[in-house]
Task: structure prediction
Amino acid sequence: MTQKRFENQSAIVTGAGEGIGYAIAYQLCAEGASVLLNDIVADRAEAAAKKIQSETGGTCIGVGGDVAQVEVVRGFVTRAIEEFGKLDICVSNAGLTSWGDFFDYTEEDFERVLNVNMRGSFFLTQAAARHFREQGNGGRIILMSSVTAHSAVKYIAAYAMTKAALEMLARTLSLELGPHGITVNSVAPGSTITPRNLNDDPNYEKHWEQVHPLRKAMQPDDIANAVLFLASPAADKITGQTIIVDAGWTTYSPAPDMDFAQDYELDDTLKGRG
Ligand SMILES: NC(=O)c1ccc[n+]([C@@H]2O[C@H](COP(=O)([O-])OP(=O)(O)OC[C@H]3O[C@@H](n4cnc5c(N)ncnc54)[C@H](O)[C@@H]3O)[C@@H](O)[C@H]2O)c1
Result:
């Protein structure tokens, strides 16, 4: 029988009651890892963990808590070690998508998005890295970025800023954590079909697939695949990097409507990004 990729390993995944984090926790558990699954909505965390356990036959515990609070994220590491005896993989997935016109954006909204996206990921990474250093056999850290760290999107300035910061955090920490055998990378998803996005726009998939060169929107499993790769032995020499999973969205730039575009029958939907 082939061994599962993450047998005898344990992982933390934040913001995983639904959406991308849920897919990451599910795949890790299905591939043998014991998973601490966090969500700010405690009932959602518990229900998700129960479902994952029953469908994969693995070990998954649901833990409520807001990643914006430093003591809470430190508690995830303590709890994972109490439950599983050790920690190998830490995925800072929880993030707050915060839209707003720059001219009217409030201090309160700014603080909240920074606290969830940056403070939460920074201090969870610190707590996990301290444990990995003490454990002495390396570790994997994956931060959840976004395409908005690479391409400009209107009305999402503060959020985009936090995601670019996380990618720089991964790069910078590669220096401090590398000597301890710890890799730290980020994954930048493009538009992904999650319950939140479908709630905001029931035609989300149709709208977004038109502007992607691959003509598809991402599924949560597409993002989870990249995270699991970075957590796997196949990626043990990769650190400080970002994998963009966006069906090609960030690869092109808008072009003006000119005659030559018609001559070459450039696809209308790829000429500009609205
Ligand atoms: N969905 C996308 O299209 C997309 C695109 C680019 C980047 N991302 C990033 O991927 C990550 C996951 O995105 P998603 O769309 O699946 O998330 P989401 O907004 O659907 O939230 C997933 C879960 O996280 C929980 N959560 C929210 N705030 C939390 C907090 N402070 N502490 C703990 N849990 C919290 C929610 O209750 C929810 O169950 C985020 O970091 C997001 O910025 C998502």
Summary: The pocket of nicotinamide-adenine-dinucleotide is lined by residues 14-15, 17-21, 38-41, 44, 66-68, 93-97, 116, 144, 146, 189, 191-192, 194, 196-197 (CB under 6 Å). The chain has one domain: 10-270. The chain has a mean pLDDT of 94.
